[in-house]
C-alpha cells in the first residue's frame, strides 16, 4: 500500500468529522458567548435570561412545558396531515383536468397572499375555540408548498419516457401510477420539508390569537408577566420540534424514495 | 408485408419558420426482416420512426401495418429509444416487465418468461438489483428486453448503440442479431454507422438530406451469421463503397 493512500483516507475521515462537528460547535459557542455576556453585563433575567436560566426554568417546569408541547405537536401533526391529504388530492385533480387547474390555481396562490394573522381570528368566530381552528391555520400555510412541488413533479416527466409509455399503448390511467406518481415523489418530499417547518409557525400563530393550551399560548401568557425565561424555553422547544420533524421527513424520504439518493449523487 | 409506407410527408412549423422534414418517403418492410435506415444527421430519421410508431401524425401519405391502414398506431409498434429510460424506482426485472405489464400480459406468465430470458440477456443475478448498479451495456439490454418481450412484432430502434463504447457496441450488435433471429421480430434500425448497418441488416435504406426521401436501397446478400471481422471482406467493402457514395454524393 502506498503511504499517501493511507494518509488520504485519514484526512478525508477527519474532514467528515469536522463537517459533523460544525453545527454543535457553533451552537455551543453561541451559548457560551451568550452566557458570559449576560453575567458580565449583569443583564436582569426578565430582560434577557442566560442559557443557564432557561435550562433551570425548563427543569423546574418540566411537566407544564411538556403538556403544552404535546398540544402544539398535536396541532402541527394533524394540520400537516390535512395539508398533505388536501395538497395531494388538489395536485392530482389539477394534473388530470386542465380546466380544474385553471379554475383553482389562482385561488391556491391567493390563499397565500392573505395574511394568516387576519384569518386566524376569523376562524375563531367561524369554527370555535378548540383545536380545529389551529389545524386549519397549520393546514392553510403548509398545503401550499406541497401542492406546488407535487404539481411540478407530476409535470416534470421526461418526454422520452412519456413517449415510450405511449408506444406501449399506455393510457393516462397507466401512465400516472407507473411514471408520473413515482417521478413526483422527490418533489413531494421537498414540499413536505418546507411544509413541516412552516406548520410549527402556523400552530403558534393559531394559538397566539386565541387558545387555552399550547406553547404559543404559554408564550402569550408569560410575556405580560415578564417570565422571559419561560418564553425562551418555549422558543427553544419549538425550534427543537421543528428540527426533529424536519429530520423525520428526511428519514421517511430515505425509506420511500431510496432511489433519489443514488440519483442525487450521480451528477 | 409488415409495413408499407407510401408518399409520406411531414413538416414542422417552428416559431413561424416552416421546416419540410420528410418529402415523399416510400418504404416496404417484410415479415421478419431486419432493415437499417441511414442518412445524414438531422435529415429526419427520428421523425420517420415517430410517424411509424404513431407518436407523430404525418401530414400526408399512408402507413400500413400488416396490410391494414390503422389510424391509431400507438401500441402496435415497439419503440426502442436511444436513452435506456430505465425507471430507478423499479428493479431490473420490474423494468424488463414494464412493457408486458402495460399491455396486460399475465403477470405470472411474464415473470416466468423473463426469468428464462435473463440469462440470454446476460442479466442473471441482477433481477432484483436497482438499475443504478448496471453497466451501460447491461442497461441497454434491459431496455431491449422491455421492448422485445411484448407482443409487438414490429420494432423500431433509434440509434440504440450510439452511447456505448466500441467494444460493447460490437458485442451488443451480435447479440441483437441472435435475439432477432430467434424471436421472429421485424426490426427497423436507425444508425449513423455504415458498418453497423451492413453487419446487421437484410436491407439498408439510404435517405437524402432534409427534406428526406429514399435515395438508395441496398440488398445485403452477405451470409449469416456475420462476424465483425467480415468488415475486411471484398464483398463487404463493395457494399460499403456503394453506401458511402450514396451518402456523400451531394458533397463536392
Ligand atoms: N417537433 C419539432 N418541431 C420542429 N422541428 C422539428 C421537430 N422535430 C424535429 N424537427 C426538425 O426536423 C429535422 C429532422 O429531425 P430528426 O430528429 O428527425 O432528424 P434525425 O435524422 O433523427 O437527426 P439525428 O441524426 O441528429 O438524430 C431537424 O432539423 C429538426 O430540427
Ligand atoms: Mg434522431
Structure description:
The complex is a heterodimer of chains A (267) and B (252). Chain A is mostly helical. Chain A has two domains: 1-42; 49-266, MetI-like (MetI-like fold). Helix content of chain A is 85%, strand content 0%. Chain A contains eleven helices and no strands. With 252 residues, chain B is α/β, with parallel strands linked by helices. Chain B folds into two domains: 1-36 and 43-77 and 154-223, Rossmann fold (3-Layer(aba) Sandwich), CATH 3.40.50; 86-151, no CATH class. In chain B, the strands form two sheets. Chain B has a six-stranded mixed β-sheet with strand order 6-7-8-3-9-10, sandwiched between helices. Chain B has a four-stranded antiparallel β-sheet with strand order 2-1-4-5, with helices on one face. In chain B, a hairpin with a 2-residue loop joins strand 1 and strand 2. Classes of the chains: A mainly alpha (267), B alpha/beta (252). The A-B interface holds A 158, 160-161, 163-170, 174, 178-179, 182, 185, 257, 259, 262-263, 266 and B 53-55, 74-79, 81, 83, 85, 87-89, 98-99, 101-103, 130, 132, 150. Bound molecules: adenosine-5'-triphosphate and magnesium ion. Magnesium ion binds at residues 45-46, 158 of chain B.
Please give a quick description of this structure.
The complex is a heterodimer of chains A (267) and B (252). Chain A is mainly α.
Describe the secondary structure blueprint for this structure.
The complex is a heterodimer of chains A (267) and B (252).
Chain A: H1 3-41, H2 51-60, H3 62-96, H4 98-113, H5 116-127, H6 132-155, H7 159-167, H8 172-208, H9 215-222, H10 228-256, H11 258-266
Helix pairs in contact in A: 2-10, 3-4, 3-6, 3-8, 3-9, 5-6, 6-8, 8-9, 8-10, 9-10, 10-11
Chain B: E1 3-14, E2 17-29, E3 34-38, H1 45-53, E4 60-65, E5 68-69, E6 77-80, H2 92-102, H3 107-120, H4 136-148, E7 154-158, H5 166-183, E8 186-191, H6 194-200, E9 203-207, E10 214-219, H7 234-248
Parallel strand pairs in B: 3-8, 3-9, 6-7, 7-8
Antiparallel strand pairs in B: 1-2, 1-4, 4-5, 9-10
Helix pairs in contact in B: 2-3, 2-4
The complex binds adenosine-5'-triphosphate and magnesium ion (MG).
Amino acid at each position: 500500500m502506498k503511504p499517501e493512500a493511507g494518509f488520504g483516507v485519514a484526512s478525508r475521515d477527519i474532514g467528515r468529522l469536522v463537517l459533523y462537528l460544525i453545527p454543535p460547535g457553533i451552537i455551543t459557542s453561541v451559548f457560551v458567548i451568550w452566557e458570559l455576556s449576560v453575567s458580565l453585563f449583569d443583564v436582569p433575567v426578565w430582560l434577557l435570561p442566560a442559557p443557564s436560566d432557561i435550562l433551570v426554568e425548563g427543569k423546574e417546569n418540566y411537566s407544564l412545558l411538556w403538556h403544552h408541547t404535546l398540544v402544539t405537536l398535536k396541532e402541527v401533526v394533524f394540520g400537516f396531515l390535512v395539508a398533505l391529504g388536501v395538497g395531494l388530492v388538489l395536485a392530482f385533480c389539477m394534473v388530470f383536468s386542465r380546466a380544474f387547474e385553471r379554475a383553482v390555481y389562482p385561488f391556491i396562490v391567493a390563499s397565500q397572499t392573505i395574511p394568516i394573522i387576519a384569518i386566524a381570528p376569523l376562524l375563531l368566530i367561524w369554527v370555535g375555540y378548540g383545536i380545529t381552528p389551529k389545524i386549519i391555520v397549520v393546514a392553510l400555510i403548509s398545503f401550499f408548498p406541497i401542492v406546488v412541488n407535487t404539481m411540478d413533479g407530476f409535470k416534470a416527466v421526461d418526454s422520452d419516457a412519456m413517449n415510450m409509455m405511449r408506444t406501449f399503448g399506455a393510457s393516462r390511467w397507466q401512465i400516472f401510477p407507473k411514471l408520473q406518481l413515482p417521478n413526483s415523489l422527490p418533489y413531494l418530499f421537498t414540499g413536505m420539508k418546507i411544509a413541516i417547518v412552516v406548520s410549527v409557525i402556523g400552530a403558534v400563530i393559531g394559538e397566539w390569537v386565541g387558545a387555552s393550551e399550547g406553547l404559543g399560548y404559554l408564550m402569550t401568557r408569560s410575556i405580560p408577566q415578564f417570565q422571559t425565561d419561560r418564553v425562551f424555553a418555549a422558543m427553544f422547544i419549538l425550534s427543537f420540534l421543528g428540527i426533529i420533524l424536519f429530520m423525520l421527513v428526511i428519514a421517511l424520504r430515505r425509506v420511500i424514495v431510496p432511489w433519489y439518493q443514488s440519483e442525487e449523487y450521480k451528477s | 408485408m409488415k409495413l408499407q409506407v407510401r408518399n409520406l410527408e411531414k413538416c414542422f412549423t417552428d416559431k413561424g419558420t416552416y421546416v419540410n422534414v420528410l418529402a415523399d418517403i416510400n418504404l416496404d418492410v417484410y415479415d421478419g426482416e431486419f432493415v437499417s435506415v441511414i442518412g445524414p444527421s438531422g435529415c429526419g430519421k427520428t421523425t420517420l420512426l415517430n410517424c411509424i410508431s404513431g407518436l407523430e401524425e404525418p401530414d400526408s401519405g399512408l402507413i400500413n401495418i400488416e396490410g391494414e391502414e390503422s389510424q391509431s398506431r400507438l401500441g402496435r409498434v415497439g419503440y426502442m429509444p436511444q436513452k435506456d429510460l430505465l425507471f430507478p424506482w423499479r428493479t431490473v426485472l420490474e423494468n424488463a416487465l414494464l412493457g408486458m405489464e402495460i399491455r396486460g400480459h399475465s403477470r405470472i406468465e411474464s415473470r416466468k418468461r423473463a426469468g428464462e430470458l435473463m440469462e440470454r440477456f446476460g442479466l442473471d443475478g441482477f433481477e432484483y438489483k436497482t438499475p443504478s448498479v448496471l453497466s451501460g451495456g447491461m442497461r441497454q439490454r434491459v431496455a431491449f428486453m422491455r421492448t422485445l418481450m411484448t407482443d409487438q412484432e414490429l420494432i423500431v430502434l433509434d440509434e440504440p448503440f450510439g452511447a456505448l463504447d466500441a467494444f460493447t457496441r460490437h458485442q451488443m450488435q451480435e447479440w441483437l442479431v441472435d435475439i432477432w433471429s430467434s424471436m421472429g421480430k421485424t426490426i427497423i434500425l436507425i444508425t449513423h454507422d455504415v458498418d453497423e448497418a451492413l453487419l446487421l441488416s437484410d436491407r439498408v435504406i439510404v435517405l437524402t438530406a432534409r427534406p428526406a426521401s429514399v435515395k438508395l436501397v441496398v440488398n445485403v446478400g452477405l451470409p449469416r451469421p456475420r462476424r465483425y471481422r467480415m468488415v475486411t471482406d471484398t464483398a463487404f467493402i463493395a457494399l460499403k463503397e456503394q453506401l458511402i457514395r450514396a451518402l456523400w454524393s451531394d458533397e463536392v
